[in-house]
Write a structure and sequence with these properties.
393 residues, two-stranded antiparallel sheet, mainly alpha
């Protein structure tokens, strides 16, 4: 069989798999009606409302975590745009499951991931004036100060993984830290520390093609098998780079214009932006699960990472951090991600083709990750991206 025939057969198998996934997820396979086909719908609200319908109470939404925290930060942005108090009430109800009456944060902070929802605490304190949220944010700030680091100052992925820096981990703590510094007059520590972590992690993980590897191990003995020379993992995974790029642009949004590290952070953002433009799949406008291997017919375009890249580029152009050229790349990405949002037979919105989570691993492991419908990574990335892109139309 010719190479072209093999690829055609694989595409047919993929089509059947997607149809099966749609049916399993309650989406109408006959008329999937992608969001890109209907510009009259407020797709941020459609995805938020569908998710809140599936999880009608904050308790049903689940425990404190980074994915839920980012999704609810998107819900908070929808609240700010629409003024609908039910969105704020849901966010507050979820936070109150973990923040007790004395402002204690009843969740362990052994890794960076549970620090991400701290941005919600800052927002809730500003909205309500309730000091419990400030006290809970203080808990995260204090933990950051004592958190273990590499010899050059990068916060470990987890206190249980000595010496490991992951590209995505900077989003878990650094945007929160920068916002905390601005909100509570702690900028001297917060701005310097957030910038340092971004610069150290980028330095260890950036590749000659401008993309980031998933992880770096200072000790060189991690279970995922670091390269003996660079001590990095081997694959450019779309979502881990997306987390990192979002962290860059969100910290830069807060960082004072005269901060000495600002030019270096903007330079790193430009490195990633050039790589995003280079590796964007021109037909769909999205990015591949393994970003630089679009030539592999087994590779596939992944929704959450594509939304993160789109968010980064769109926001960076709006803030004047990137040239206007990248607005076109962002608009193309936005249309591509919208094509992965469909309404099911029940009328609820569904976000398709989001990779399940993974640790640093080998190439085939990334390709074989399950392609999920309504995974929280995809829901969260979509809402923050769509809020960013649609407000500029």
């Amino acid at each position: 069989m010719s190479t072209r025939a093999v690829r055609a057969a694989r595409r047919l198998v993929t089509t059947f798999a997607v149809v099966g996934a749609l049916l399993a997820g309650g989406v109408s396979a006959a008329t999937p009606a992608p969001a890109a086909a209907d510009s009259t719908v407020d797709w941020s609200r459609a995805v938020v409302d569908a998710t809140l319908t599936r999880f009608p109470t904050p308790a049903s939404f689940g425990e404190w975590s980074h994915t839920r925290g980012l999704f609810l930060y998107g819900v908070y942005q929808v609240y700010r745009r629409t003024g609908e108090k039910r969105y704020l009430d849901y966010v507050r109800g979820w936070a109150d499951l973990t923040v007790d009456a004395e402002g204690r944060l009843n969740t362990p902070l052994v890794q960076q991931n549970p620090m991400l929802p701290g941005s919600l605490l800052i927002a809730l304190h500003a909205e309500t004036g309730d000091l419990r949220y400030r006290k809970a944010a203080d808990v995260i700030r204090a933990r950051i100060a004592e958190y273990p680091r590499t010899s050059d100052g990068g916060m470990w992925y987890s206190s249980l993984t000595p010496g490991e820096l992951w590209a995505d981990s900077v989003y878990m703590a650094q945007p929160f830290l920068a916002r905390y510094g601005k909100a509570y007059g702690d900028g001297k520590y917060a701005y310097d520390e957030a910038a340092r972590n971004l610069l150290v992690t980028f330095k260890h993980l950036v590749a000659p093609n401008g993309l980031l590897f998933h992880a770096y191990d200072e000790n060189g003995d991690a279970s995922w098998g670091p390269d003996p020379v660079t001590r990095t993992s081997a694959v450019h995974w779309v979502r881990t780079i997306g987390w990192h790029s979002m962290a860059l642009v969100e910290v830069l949004e807060v960082l004072p214009r005269n901060h000495p590290d600002r030019p270096k952070l903007i330079a790193n953002l430009n490195v990633l932006a050039r790589a995003f433009a280079r590796f964007q799949e021109p037909r769909t406008g999205r990015w591949f699960q393994v970003v630089d291997r679009g030539d592999d017919p087994d590779n596939w375009t992944e929704t959450s990472g594509s939304a993160m890249y789109t968010y980064t580029l769109g926001k960076a152009v709006r803030l004047g951090l990137l040239p206007r050229y990248y607005d076109t790349v962002a608009r193309t990405g936005h249309r591509g991600v919208l094509a992965k949002v469909v309404k099911g037979a029940d009328g609820l919105a569904n976000v398709l083709d989001t990779s399940e989570g993974t640790h640093p691993s080998d190439y085939q492991t990334y390709l074989s990750r399950r392609r999920m419908t309504n995974d929280l990574h995809g829901l969260a990335a979509f809402v923050v991206m769509n809020e960013q892109l649609t407000q500029r139309m």
